[in-house]
């Protein structure tokens, strides 16, 4: 079957393709040649992690060989902990030592961690070189490789330092998903569920119907879930590239509590998707009070997340600690935390919530 092509067309940016298909990594160089021909790269640097590199680095480098320029690689430790100040410093130093120049290209080969880290390295080194995303997790195919958010975590909170840099090209070669474990599969499903619920009845009820097949990794359903998610995200980002117009925040549904859980539990303790799923359960309940979220939606979302392998987390923390972590969320304004709440499927609101209401709902939710 031919690869699916989604064109990301953001005002003020060069258009780029997201290609989704089986076994397309080997053709990466051929597909990139026309994209990079305006300024042929003097060198390509593939950045990967210690789990992905042994599996797919060789195929990736072979795929890039047709471009005829030197291809170097560096490998960072696998896992969320690598999205940090220390590792980005090492990456910048390696880029300089390898002689990367403004006309070089960074290829991010890995999941969302490598995508965010390598994207940030590319966006900042010499004030910006071109970046190509080669996502290898379900999450990175459906979400993080598209839209240009890059960055690292601080001890104080998730993604607190970063930039926006749109990739030049995205290659989602779905065969690599075969080596992904159950935890990471469910993690990607969480972002698909987030997108479906925020997008429309059409996407949400398609997902409800196909959740068992997605959980079983049925290839046609997997490809359609990726394509639907990318089309949705590309449409949102096209309206609000830098999250400054009150539109892109919708992609943050579930993330206000989700990011607080990741920070407080320690990066890597829970997958990003598992924490976001918990955040979606909480936000829907908060929505019942503040946005008229119907009980049927709360229950339908719970059932969907259960089916996708995203069970309720065995985690709790004092409500005050969670609130303090949430206060560093990038959606906060004038010290108040703002939540994306689902008034209904396909109808979200960005609501500023006072501290007492948040504390009350956290205590209720976590049974304090
Ligand atoms: N920039 C964005 O728009 C955006 C969107 C969503 C999430 N994110 C970020 O993405 C990160 C989460 O990404 P993730 O869920 O992909 O995690 P990840 O990158 O840590 O990958 C998960 C695990 O799977 C391994 N792995 C990756 N590909 C594999 C493969 N094909 N086979 C076997 N193992 C493989 C990795 O080595 C890692 O151990 C978080 O830091 C989150 O904040 C960013
Ligand atoms: O692309 C976006 O915009 C998103 O919010 C997608 C999220 O899934 C992703 O986790 C993102 O990194 C969160 O962004 P942040 O600005 O809250 O750090
Ligand atoms: Zn996310």
What does this structure look like?
The protein folds into 2 domains: about 5-180, Rossmann fold; about 185-365, Dehydroquinate synthase-like - alpha domain (Dehydroquinate synthase-like, alpha domain, Up-down Bundle), CATH 1.20.1090. About 45% of the residues lie in helices and about 20% in strands. The chain has helices at about 30-35, 55-65, 85-95, 110-125, 140-145, 180-200, 200-215, 220-240, 255-265, 270-290, 295-305, 320-325, 355-365; strands at about 5-10, 15-20, 45-50, 70-75, 105-110, 130-135, 150-155, 155-165, 170-175, 335-345, 345-355. The strands form 3 sheets. Strands 1-2-9-6-5-3-4 form a 7-stranded mixed beta sheet, with helices on both faces. Strands 7-8 form a two-stranded antiparallel ribbon. Strands 10-11 form a two-stranded antiparallel sheet. Helix 6 (about 180-200) crosses helix 8 (about 220-240). It starts with a strand and ends with a helix. The model has no long low-confidence stretch (mean pLDDT about 100). The site of zinc ion has 5 residues, from helix 10. It catalyses: 7-phospho-2-dehydro-3-deoxy-D-arabino-heptonate = 3-dehydroquinate + phosphate. Its EC number is 4.2.3.4. Keywords: Amino-acid biosynthesis, Aromatic amino acid biosynthesis, Cobalt, Cytoplasm, Lyase, Metal-binding, NAD, Nucleotide-binding, Zinc. Catalyzes the conversion of 3-deoxy-D-arabino-heptulosonate 7-phosphate (DAHP) to dehydroquinate (DHQ).
């Amino acid at each position: 079957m031919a690869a699916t092509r989604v064109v990301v067309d953001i005002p003020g940016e060069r258009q780029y393709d997201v290609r989704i298909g089986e076994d397309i990594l080997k053709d990466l160089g051929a597909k990139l040649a026309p994209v990079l021909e305006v300024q042929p790269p003097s060198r390509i640097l593939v950045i990967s992690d210690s789990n992905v590199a042994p599996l797919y680095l060789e195929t990736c480098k072979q795929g890039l060989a047709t471009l005829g320029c030197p291809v170097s690689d560096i490998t960072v430790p696998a896992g969320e902990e690598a999205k940090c100040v220390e590792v980005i410093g090492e990456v910048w130093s390696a880029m300089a030592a390898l002689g990367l120049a403004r006309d070089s290209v960074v290829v991010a080969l890995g999941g969302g961690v490598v995508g965010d880290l390598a994207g940030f390295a590319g966006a900042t080194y010499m004030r910006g070189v071109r970046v190509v995303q080669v996502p290898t997790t379900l999450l990175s195919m459906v979400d993080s490789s598209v839209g240009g958010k890059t960055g690292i975590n601080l001890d104080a909170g998730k993604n607190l330092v970063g930039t926006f840099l749109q990739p030049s090209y995205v290659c989602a070669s779905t065969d690599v998903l075969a080596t992904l474990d159950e935890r990471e599969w469910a993690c990607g499903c969480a972002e698909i569920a987030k997108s479906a619920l925020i997008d429309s009845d059409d996407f949400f009820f398609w997902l409800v119907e196909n959740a068992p097949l997605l959980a079983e990794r049925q290839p046609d359903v997997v490809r359609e879930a990726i394509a639907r998610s990318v089309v949705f995200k590309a449409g949102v980002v096209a309206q609000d590239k830098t999250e400054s117009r009150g539109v892109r925040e919708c992609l943050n549904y579930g993330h206000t509590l989700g990011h607080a859980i990741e920070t407080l539990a320690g990066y890597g303790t829970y997958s990003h998707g598992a924490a976001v799923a918990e955040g979606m359960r909480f936000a829907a309940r908060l929505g019942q009070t503040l946005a008229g979220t119907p009980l049927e939606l709360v229950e339908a979302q719970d059932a969907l997340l259960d089916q996708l392998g995203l069970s309720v987390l065995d985690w709790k923390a004092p409500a005050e600690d969670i609130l303090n972590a949430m206060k560093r969320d990038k959606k906060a304004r004038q010290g108040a935390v703002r939540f994306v709440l689902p008034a209904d499927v396909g109808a979200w609101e960005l609501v500023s919530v006072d501290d007492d209401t948040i504390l009350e709902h956290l205590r209720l939710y976590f049974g304090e």
